[in-house]
């Protein structure tokens, strides 16, 4: 070529080099080929335009499917898209192998890309072609299997340290790195989140490194693009300032890839190799895919750890600390959150010191829902209950005010944010064991008596808090006898595990009856009966998933049947006692009294005597409600030790404030009343009426029948 002659056209030069030009517009779905490119793909040597389906038919289907991945990698790294592709004839035979090199451009508005590049026939094997070459099918299958395993393992990792352990154990097909490091950012500095293949302390020079430093990881964080260094010479040339730090590890190749989540670069991942790696497009594709999965796993793990920290903080701030020791009484509590979400919910308990000498209140409840909103409402409601109780209001007034408070908090104009809460409020007088209970849609308390007998104690109640701001909450008065333990709990303790209220209570009853230790051990046993062994107490979350939150309170009045006293004596007390009050306006509670008496006599030897006791009790209670204007106090007691000779005695007494003594009547055959005392005389072993200063007590006693060895009485 003489000086000053014009240069040949680019197309002529490329044709002389057996190199064709092509253009692929994915938005239009068309591929334009010049004459040489058309010849290379097996078409007549003339410029032509094909549809995407037409050009795809000229390539091996496996190779065509690789094109999109190669292009996406090139777009992410800002490099050329390079791939080897096999050209097929009409019979499906490979006629030649071509190499495509193209520059992709991306259209953000449409999400499509365009390729402009070259095609050139390949007559020699790929440089360094080994088992991990991009054109070998076995390598591709190994890569796909590796990525599936890696994705599954990283998806199951729950903490940052676990993610790093999984990343360190990844065995990449053909070019596994022997050194890994994950870099994060804090402000304008890099931090080392974790590393593998290095000795402890090796990371020190790389911690707190400025983002503007002459270091590959810093550049990756700044630009969001990967850096590949195939040799020590290339590393030293590109990053002379940081090369002395890297040289001491004796590595031959390095890959630094961005950890990107939702378009934001959160750090960098380094994979270092003791052997030279050329970083072919397929190798870069594998590393890029692993980096993306690693970034997602680290993001999930970081979010989970943040949630756990938030959960712990919420629990510590919302759950109360039980007050000082109460003379003559012991209190234990547990709270176990659900496993879903932030592991916080609407269950709570509290112990409140009341005005007056020694009195205190126990409250337990459950706000509807298992989300942060429920937890927030729970905290506000607990504070409101504490405030109303501290003002000296009675239990019914405390719940009425709390219901109005919650209704005002949750009743929006459209009614979509309405929430309710169940609650049980107990005012305790430690000196006498008197319990005054108000209940708002919550499960009734259970009493473990001194001899181990467990009774559910029906109490009067109203609607859950927040439903009706004008709802009333009647008060029930009970007495916790020495040696007895009261259980208050939310429905999560009862119903978890597919149980309903009845079967759930049977499960808890067995635990309460068999337990002879202190309250702390009993609380652990109740939780373990639902979820298995755990060392976590009131503020410690369990890690397994469960159906509902659990909150429970145990209150024990000192006596022979309570905790340590049993362990010292080894003998159960021989007296069990239960009491309840039935108001004039509550005749329906006579049925509850009958059920209470049957539970009290659950191990009585004579079924006929139990029926007689229930009948007589109903008669005496009905007599008070019909013939007087006062409420009825029922006290039932079983004394003595059970054996085959009988020996126990039951006493049932009903007290009212009327001075009118009962007298025997002589009803006719058709009379509807007047037979109460007749029945008492016929069925009771002993009975009587005891006048009091104000009112009277009518009582009866039954002696347990003896049971012979052959089972006959």
Kindly report the CATH topology of the largest domain. Phosphatase 2c, domain 1
CATH H-level name of the largest domain... which superfamily?
PPM-type phosphatase domain
Instruction: Report the average pLDDT across residues.
Output: 80
Largest sheet: 6 strands, antiparallel
Shape by Cα distribution: elongated
Organism: Streptomyces macrolidinus
Domain GAF: 145-308
Domain PPM-type phosphatase: 326-557
Keywords: Hydrolase
How would you describe the overall organization of this protein?
The protein is an alpha+beta fold. The chain has four domains: 10-124, Beta-Lactamase (2-Layer Sandwich), CATH 3.30.450; 139-310, Beta-Lactamase; 323-569, 4-Layer Sandwich (Phosphatase 2c, domain 1), CATH 3.60.40; 575-703, 2-Layer Sandwich (Heat Shock Protein 90), CATH 3.30.565.10. Helices cover 33% and strands 27% of the residues. The protein contains 19 helices and 28 strands. The strands form five sheets. A six-stranded antiparallel β-sheet has the order 3-2-1-6-5-4. Strands 9-8-7-12-11-10 form a six-stranded antiparallel β-sheet, with helices on both faces. Strands 14, 15, 16, 17, 20 and 21 form a six-stranded mixed β-sheet that branches. Helix 5 packs parallel to helix 10 and helix 17 (590-600) packs antiparallel against helix 18. The longest helix is centred in the middle third of the chain and has 38 residues, at 281-318.
